Amino acid sequence: MPNIYYVSNQGKDSNAGTQSSPWKTIQKGANSVKPGDTVNIKGGIYKERVTLQTSGSANNYITFTNNPGEVVTIDGTGIDWGYDWNSLFNLNSKNYIKLIGLRVINSRWAGIGSVPDSNGSENILIQNCSTYNTKSSGIVFITGSNIIIDGNSVERACTGTSNTQECISLATIATFTIKNNHVFNCTNKIPGAGGEGIDAKEGSSNGTICNNIVNDVVKVGIYVDAYSKHEFNIEVYGNTVYNSTQGIVVATEHNGLLENVRIYNNIVYNCVNWGLAVGGWNPGYTHAMQGISFIYNTIYNIGDGGIYLNNGEANNVVITNNIFSAGSQTSSVPIYVNGANLKQTTIDYNLLNRIASGQPTGTHYIVGDPKFVNASLYNFHLQSNSPAIKRGIKTNILTDFDGNIRTNADLGAFKY
Fold it and tell me: Residue 376 gets which letter from DSSP?
């Protein structure tokens, strides 16, 4: 029979762990739970590192949750567990676990996650948690499957000096969902440190990155990078990225293969370099990718340009039904090619802020003002007289940023 245990700052670990006789530390709960059990944590600050000892099972998740309406803070100030690149709330090699409503701050490395040498974690839900001031990722899972990261806040992640990973980081994860999270204020500019907002990398597959807000990060807002492995079947949609160096980028940095990635109905604005990019950097490696599509995105006020095509090994790249609007960046290039193979790239039915000398426009393009409802307030819905209305090509993507079913082929992320 599953048990509900209780933890309180006023408790004792020698207690029974009941509501009237709670334990004092969360670690006592981690040492005691069995599959199906729940640890209910009373509000307060807990200065400890938590390492799970037991996994749940398919029908009996182990759950750690805040007492309803109370703030539970796990504070790593002064806690040094050695140089093992792990997390303050450590799920290494544990399966069927739920963390709900916990706040993790001041970790010497990552906040929440699993950074093992080999095994990884499976069937994990991280929901409505928050992390703050972590030297490495706020939330990280390396190796595993069936990871859901939903409704979390990640602030001031990757504050360390080198190899700090990304704010939310998944590597070699088979089946994942990263949704409804807010990643922000991650602005460490130390050379060699990390800082991408959300990264699905190193052979992750069958995943969704949707409805997240990423802002004020020092590097890329959302990054999909096969690195040295085969990464495939990833959808990136309904996200808002702003105040970063680049918005949404796909890459294969070190001889891997990236395929079947759809990036649609996203809004990217106020970035330094590029709104979207197909990367081919890191000389000396191959950068194979195929089946990459950018559809129904709205890109606004980007310093260098709307989309950067920098991978000559990328095949079957589709760029259609997007709005590339310059805002105050009048020299911004809507589509910029640097080594890409245009014979393997379809550019069609986009609205461009201007025609740039020597750069492609594609076919069926429009040049001009998209007539947003109020760009100064970042309302990128279209006015009824927008030239982007009914000027696209129909695709098999049926809904817009608002979740409405598309009845016509408007350009950009929103219906008018």
Answer: G
Residue with tokens 């807990």: 46
Nearest to 258 by CA among 284, 227, 236: 227
How far is residue 334's CA from residue 317's CA, in Å, rounded to a whole number?
16
**Are 347 and 361 in contact, with CB atoms under 8 Å apart?**
yes
Neighbouring residues of 331: CB distance < 8 A, sequence distance ≥ 6: none
According to DSSP, residue 218 is labeled: S
The DSSP letter of residue 363 is B
Residue pair 48/80 in contact by the 8 Å Cβ criterion: no
Residue type, 398: L
Per-residue pLDDT of the chain (416 residues; tens, 9 = 90+): 899 999 999 999 999 999 999 999 999 999 999 999 999 999 999 999 999 999 999 999 999 999 999 999 999 999 998 877 899 999 999 999 999 999 999 999 999 999 976 789 999 999 999 999 999 999 999 999 999 999 999 999 999 887 789 999 999 999 999 999 999 999 887 777 778 999 999 999 999 999 999 999 999 999 999 999 999 999 999 999 999 999 999 999 999 999 999 999 999 999 999 999 999 988 899 999 999 999 999 999 999 999 999 999 999 999 999 999 998 898 899 999 998 999 999 999 999 999 999 999 999 999 999 999 999 999 999 999 999 999 998 887 777 777 776 666 899 998 76
Neighbour count for residue 357 (Cβ, 10 Å): 6
CB atoms within 10 A of CB 394: 11
Backbone phi and psi for residue 343, each to the nearest 5 degrees, phi listed first = -70, -20
CATH of 4-382, one of 1.10.1670.10, 1.10.3720.10, 2.160.20.10, 2.40.30.10: 2.160.20.10
Which tokens in the block code for residue 190? Answer: 């130390």
Nearest Cα neighbor of 361 from 327, 302, 320, 414 is 320
Alpha-carbon Rg for the chain in angstroms: 23
DSSP state of 161: S
C-beta neighbour count of 77 within 10 angstroms? 11
Return the number of other C-beta atoms located less than 10 Å from residue 284's C-beta: 6
Domain residue limits, the chain: 4-382
What's the whole-model pTM score?
0.97
